[in-house]
Design goal:
single chain; 3 strands; 228 residues; Peroxisomal Thiolase, Chain A, domain 1; mainly alpha; three-stranded parallel beta sheet
């Protein structure tokens, strides 16, 4: 038996980790379809099944999903029957991890599965994030997340907290880190960007190279060019 006295303390460790491949857009996949393979991979890593965890905790944003209590649907990814001890935070995976950490430290659970998710591609992300602003004075102005970040940056510069050069270094470092993603993931991002360009499919460039017009289909089923 474990004690519920938090002051006694318990060592807590992360023993498994998995994540999806980041892509520019995943229009054909639901949140459940994104989460389920990741959860299955973690369960294989730690050799536990659905009944092996004392506590489940998820982190997500209903603003990205576009509906209230959207996390209820994603419980299908873990299998919520028979009933499980579950919690959700309207934040990111890090906050969910902190709740699970407290749950274990306080002795109310020995194992926990934490997952965070978000799918921003269905909407205009800078506009969607602005809906989380104060609803009476700020939100009616419809500021984008980029504009709010600019105001925050200017306030920090004026207060002497940072400088333009220091912020530029952070941006450059982040872009270098992004290049460390597996090449398959980078190609998927690039391909997704190109797919959103206007024009018929045969004229869309593939990884920077334009595809030639295949021309009309001839009687024999072969493609050929029209004779002038």
């Amino acid at each position: 038996m474990t004690t519920s006295n938090f002051s006694a303390g318990r060592d807590v460790a992360i023993v498994g980790f998995a994540q999806t491949k980041h892509v520019r857009a995943a229009d054909t996949l639901s949140e459940v379809e994104l989460i389920q393979p990741v959860i299955a991979e973690v369960m294989d890593q730690v050799d536990l099944d659905h009944h092996g965890f004392d506590f489940y905790c998820s982190g997500s944003s209903d603003y990205l999903a576009g509906q209230a209590f959207s996390f209820v649907m994603t419980l299908d990814a873990i299998g919520a029957w028979p009933p499980v001890a579950e919690s959700h935070v309207e934040m990111d995976g890090a906050w969910a991890l902190y709740e699970a950490y407290l749950k274990i430290r306080s002795g109310h659970a020995d194992t926990a599965l934490v997952y965070g998710y978000g799918k921003s591609s269905p909407g205009d992300l800078p506009r969607v994030l602005s809906r989380m602003c104060e609803p009476y004075y700020t939100a009616p102005l419809w500021p984008t997340s980029v504009e709010l970040a600019a105001l925050q940056a200017r306030a920090c510069i004026e207060a002497g907290v940072t400088s333009e050069a220091e912020m530029a270094k952070v941006a450059a470092r982040s872009r270098r880190s992004a290049r460390g993603v597996a090449r398959t993931g980078r190609r998927a991002v690039l391909a997704s960007r190109l797919d959103h360009r206007a024009g018929p499919p045969h004229r869309r460039p593939r990884f920077g190279r334009a595809r030639p017009d295949p021309g009309p289909v001839g009687p024999a089923g072969r493609r050929g060019r029209r004779r002038r």
